[in-house]
Amino acid sequence: MRPSHEEDQAPDAPLTQPILQFGTSRFLQAHVDLFVSEALESGQPGAAPGGITVVQTTENADSAARIAALANGSGYPVHVRGLHAGRLIDATLTGRAIRQAVHVRKDWALLREAISGPVQIIISNTGDQGYRLDERDNARAFAEPSRVPHSFPARLLSLLHTRWQNRPDAPLSLFPCELIEKNGEVLRGIAVELALRWHMPDDFIRYLTEHCVWANSLVDRIVSEPIRPVGAIAEPYALWAIEKQPRLQVPCVHPSIVLTDNLHHFERRKLFLLNLGHTFLAERWLRDARAAEETVCGAMNDPALRAELEKVWQQEVLPVFDLLGEGDDALAYVAQVRERLLNPFLAHRLADIAQNHAQKKQRRIAPLLALAASLTRANGTIIDQPLLTEMMAGDI
């Protein structure tokens, strides 16, 4: 164990925070963690249930340095820089919600105690491979509670089993923040599949499916650079869209958190306007062999390239939202996206965006073309999409 935000604690001190977070990424520091910090500091009653215990889940040196820095209790900086509604924002905030910091292997016993005690909310952001299972995790290994599983889903299942054994009636909401559609349902499905595979009790499986609340949500904020050893540089725009459901406990009340009955609208908007815009610029960067260090802002300040992207938005994407009855909202979102891509402070390199480019095109462009085709069949209105069709010509 490490020191809390408020006082030094002995290495074996209990974990006392109501929010348990798996992952130390700069994104979480500048998004969820900062939201909770601002809610706690607002003084508004009930704005947040309390602080966060963050769990290092990897063995790399950067994560270890972040945990050590988070554990000293002084908070960490978040530089918020960019344009917002035409106004320049350049501010340094301090995140103070993380009160305790532990390592999943070294502090497993403390985590098992915490899940049986104060924890009300679990948050995760475990990266692209976070839901991958590990063959070393099996029913025999799981039968030893003191043994730390290897994969995140198995670790989570083990902790939830401990929770069920000790506090089966206590409310618990889980917020996976991985960029996966229906992320809450997907993670729940993996946990249930493991529990069935390992022949766990039916009552426990019902606990997973009927008692635990697994939130589907979408996170949206560009956090372009880390501050070492801990902290981040982020844009002013931030959104956490969370799908409403009964018994859901949110980590905090915050202007950037939206509870919605239509999460798919937010997902589609981000995918087809922001993410597609990034992928279009990356396509041109690759095709035209542009400067190796070119950033999104640099590309947006090229008049010819900017005009092409604007044409894609106006003529090939927004008409789809018009037919969906979401045109006004999409147009307003494009204005926000334009400001975000023109942010001169974020070193958002097209070389980074261009990684896994073919797969990104399949996720971000192919579904839009299919949606446009289906709307054309249903409405008889033809949406011409030559630039996007050309991008996908060699990939479909």
TrEMBL record:
Catalytic activity, EC: 1.1.1.58
InterPro entries linked to this entry: 6-PGluconate_DH-like_C_sf (IPR008927), 6PGD_dom2 (IPR013328), Mannitol_DH_C (IPR013118), Mannitol_DH_N (IPR013131), NAD(P)-bd_dom_sf (IPR036291)
Keywords, in A-Z order: NAD, Oxidoreductase
Enzyme kind, highest EC tier: oxidoreductase
Segments forming domain Mannitol dehydrogenase N-terminal: 19-246
Origin superkingdom: Bacteria
Listed name of the protein: Tagaturonate reductase
The organism of origin for this protein: Paraburkholderia fungorum
